[in-house]
């Protein structure tokens, strides 16, 4: 997956340094924005599915949310390529969003 | 990123830490000072140092306060009474009045009046100079300044999240975490900085993890509202009503006059209910109206939770309306304890001091981390520098910001305390002027640092901070009657004031030592030498 991506970029005549920088920029966006969205979705899922009183479930999920965010950020920077980082965030996010949609609990307003 | 998990985490640790370290340092310094915000406020109001408030029971104090309020707060719609406690010897009386038509609005605290009273007589204590005191530092910790509080909270939260990522990735990347705790190799340049960073980070590691995560938890429904909106279909008020019951809304006045019931018996009833826990705050809505309500809040510090139980009474009949916070469900209690851990109201003097020291270690961790990056990067560029090339833009920027933050923040704190003593007592908008001195001094230090971020600049600014802090006890001799000679040697003044003087003295001496260790290098060596203050910086 990584090799063709690099040859493609190389054809655009980007130096190795520029490729590296683009990768870092892409991962930073993935970590900060994508990581937040994933953490917010997991928080939603836990809030509506934990087997406890509603306010308690929300409280528990929200308390855990920053740990989830942290794990997502670490995953983004630990994995082999930026593409894998994005996929690793987007696939679980899409699955959770689908479950929430099916439960009719997806709230698009994050604020 | 790079090959291998450990390497990629080292990279993440470096950058997530470096990018936000200067704001983090300010947040850490202000937060550490906030452990003693009451004491700082007391220090900043020397007019109150002599007034040894008499010790009375909370019941008696409530009775006296009610009498004083009925005399002085006529026409007020809300009363706020803070009864004397361990860390605040005076009764605090406050009330707000509805604004009169045509009256000039004076900001959000416009119609709020507050004064300190003797708990035994109800008489107003000699009016102290106006200052925000420790409250300014406390607000600075999460509301910053010169910007809407909500932006500031997002910025601080963003930085806190970076910090948490940095701490966790720092642990992951660290192979010999236990061994390094006992390793310090002074006078070895980069090695020493690495060791200093490790020691300050690892020594107080549980504290750093706790304080960062619980800091996020204090504002978690601002930062992560999605759970509440999902479970309550966007009705956040419903969530808050369920999760934090007992916060009744403002009742409407009936417009019918009715005398307020006596407060003292309610205080006794509440203290019995709480098994001896003291009442700290009394607030009364619509005193003198038939719909008056009285809310009593228990003093914190009896358990670790920040949640202070409260009881609400009918203001006319004195009938108990509701109690809150006696038994909380698990998750809510967990959140309460996490917030409680962050603000540390539960701690006795010793534990509070330990938290303060851990906070200082946190400041040192952030500072040494920032310095380590600069030293390392300069090492990498050593060849180019020796060949007469300029340091890279990033390196120059970081070095300048390091001076502006690490040496500049003590200058700002020092200037704030100096301004408190030197500005005319009767000055208009005095609290704002003190704060302007804080930021003015800091801005000046930071701008000068950008001009020439050199070793001499470090020395000069550290010395300036050292002077401003260490000389405060001397300044006190000339400007107050409660200097160390009185508070310490005659053993008369408030202990908190003496302790403040001693702590700033020690911090100032630490900075002075750091400045001293930064002796100018011999001319030849100076050219290629990294800009770095002495290892002893962490003492400050």
Features:
heterodimer; A: 111 residues; mainly alpha; 4 helices; disordered N terminus; B: 540 residues; alpha+beta; seven-stranded antiparallel sheet; 7% strand; globular; disordered C terminus
Question: What is this entry, summarized?
Answer:
Chain A contains four helices and no strands. Chain A is mostly helical and 111 residues long. The radius of gyration of chain A is 17 Å and the shape is elongated.
Could you please describe the fold and organization of this structure?
The complex is a heterodimer of chains A (111) and B (540). Chain A has one domain. In chain A, 81% of the residues lie in helices and 0% in strands. Chain A is built from four helices and no strands. Chain A is elongated and about 55 Å long. Chain B is α+β, with helices and mostly antiparallel strands. Chain B has two domains: 303 residues, no CATH class; 152 residues, no CATH class. The C terminus of chain B is likely disordered.
Sheet with the most strands of chain B? 7 strands, antiparallel
Number of separate structural domains of chain A: 1
Structural class of chain B: alpha+beta
* Arithmetic mean of pLDDT of chain B: 87
Main sheet: strand order of chain B: 3-2-1-4-5-6-7
Specify the helix fraction band of chain A: over 70%
**Number of discrete helical segments of chain B:** 22
Low-confidence stretches of chain A: 1-6
The value of Rg of chain A in angstroms is 17 Å
- Structure summary, number of beta strands of chain A: 0
> What's the overall geometry of chain A?
elongated
Question: What proportion of the residues of chain A form beta strands (DSSP E)?
Answer: under 5%
Task: Write down the Rg of chain B.
Answer: 26 Å
Q: Structural class from helices and strands of chain A?
A: mainly alpha
What is this structure's SSE topology?
The complex is a heterodimer of chains A (111) and B (540).
Chain A: H1 2-11, H2 16-49, H3 54-78, H4 82-102
Helix pairs in contact in A: 2-3, 2-4, 3-4
Chain B: H1 5-34, H2 37-43, H3 58-72, E1 78-82, E2 91-96, E3 112-117, H4 133-143, H5 149-173, H6 177-180, H7 190-203, H8 205-218, H9 220-223, H10 226-231, H11 236-243, H12 263-273, E4 279-285, E5 293-298, E6 310-314, E7 320-324, H13 330-343, H14 349-380, H15 382-386, H16 393-422, H17 430-451, H18 455-470, H19 472-479, H20 484-489, H21 495-517, H22 523-528
Antiparallel strand pairs in B: 1-2, 1-4, 2-3, 4-5, 5-6, 6-7
Helix pairs in contact in B: 1-4, 1-5, 1-14, 1-16, 2-4, 3-12, 5-8, 7-14, 8-13, 14-16, 16-17, 16-18, 16-19, 18-21
């Amino acid at each position: 997956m990584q090799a063709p991506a690099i040859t493609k970029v190389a054809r655009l005549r980007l130096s190795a340094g520029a490729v590296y920088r683009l990768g870092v920029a892409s991962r930073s966006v993935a970590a900060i924005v994508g990581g937040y969205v994933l953490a917010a979705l997991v928080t939603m899922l836990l809030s509506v599915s934990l087997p406890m009183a509603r306010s308690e479930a929300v409280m528990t999920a929200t308390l855990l949310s920053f740990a989830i965010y942290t794990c997502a950020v670490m995953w983004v920077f630990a994995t082999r390529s930026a593409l894998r980082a994005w996929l690793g965030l987007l696939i679980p996010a899409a699955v959770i969003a689908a479950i929430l949609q099916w439960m009719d609990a997806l709230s698009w307003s994050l604020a | 990123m790079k090959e291998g998990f450990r390497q990629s985490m080292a990279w993440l640790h470096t950058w997530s830490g470096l990018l936000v370290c200067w704001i983090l340092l300010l947040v850490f310094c202000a937060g550490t000072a906030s452990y003693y915000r009451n004491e700082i406020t007391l220090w900043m109001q020397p007019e109150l140092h002599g007034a040894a408030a008499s010790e009375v029971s909370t019941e008696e104090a409530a009775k006296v306060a009610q009498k004083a309020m009925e005399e002085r707060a006529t026409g007020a719609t809300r009363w706020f009474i803070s009864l004397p406690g361990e860390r605040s010897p005076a009764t605090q009386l406050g009330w707000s009045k509805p604004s009169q038509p045509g009256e000039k609005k004076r900001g959000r605290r416009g119609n709020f009046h507050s004064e300190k009273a003797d708990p035994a007589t109800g008489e107003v204590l000699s009016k102290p100079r106006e200052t925000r005191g420790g409250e300014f530092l406390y607000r600075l910790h999460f509301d910053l300044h010169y910007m809407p509080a909500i932006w500031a909270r997002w910025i601080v939260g963003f930085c806190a999240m970076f910090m948490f990522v940095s701490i966790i990735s720092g642990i992951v990347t660290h192979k010999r975490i236990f061994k390094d705790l006992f390793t310090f190799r002074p006078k070895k340049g980069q090695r020493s900085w690495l060791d200093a960073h490790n020691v300050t980070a690892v020594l107080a590691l549980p504290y750093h993890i706790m304080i960062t995560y619980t800091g996020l938890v204090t504002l978690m429904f601002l930062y992560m509202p999605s759970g509440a909106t999902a479970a309550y279909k966007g009705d956040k008020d419903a969530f808050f009503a369920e999760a934090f019951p007992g916060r009744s809304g403002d009742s409407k006045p009936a417009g019918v006059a009715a005398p307020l019931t006596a407060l003292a018996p309610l205080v006794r009833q509440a203290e019995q209910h709480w098994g001896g826990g003291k009442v700290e705050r009394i607030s009364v809505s619509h005193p003198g109206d038939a719909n008056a309500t009285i809310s009593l809040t228990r003093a914190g510090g009896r358990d670790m939770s920040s949640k202070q139980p409260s009881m609400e009474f009918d203001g006319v009949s004195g009938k108990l309306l509701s109690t809150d916070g006696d038994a909380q469900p698990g998750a809510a209690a967990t959140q309460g304890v996490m917030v409680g851990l962050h603000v540390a109201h539960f701690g006795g003097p010793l534990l509070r001091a330990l938290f303060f020291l851990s906070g200082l270690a946190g400041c040192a961790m952030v500072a040494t981390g920032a310095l380590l990056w600069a030293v390392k990067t300069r090492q990498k560029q050593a060849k180019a520098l020796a060949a007469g090339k300029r340091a890279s833009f990033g390196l120059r920027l970081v070095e300048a910001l390091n001076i502006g933050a690490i040496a500049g923040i003590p200058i700002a704190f020092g200037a704030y305390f100096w301004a408190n003593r030197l500005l005319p007592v009767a000055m208009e908008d005095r609290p704002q002027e003190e704060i302007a001195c804080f930021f003015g001094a800091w801005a000046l230090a930071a701008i000068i640092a950008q001009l020439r971020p050199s070793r001499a600049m470090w020395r000069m600014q550290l010395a300036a901070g050292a002077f401003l802090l260490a000389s405060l006890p001397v300044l006190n001799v000339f400007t107050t009657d409660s200097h160390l000679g009185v508070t310490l040697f005659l053993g008369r003044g408030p202990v908190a004031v003496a302790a403040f003087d001693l702590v700033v003295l020690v911090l100032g001496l630490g900075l002075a030592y750091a400045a001293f260790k930064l002796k100018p290098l011999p001319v030849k060596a100076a050219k290629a030498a990294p800009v770095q203050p002495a290892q002893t910086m962490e003492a400050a």
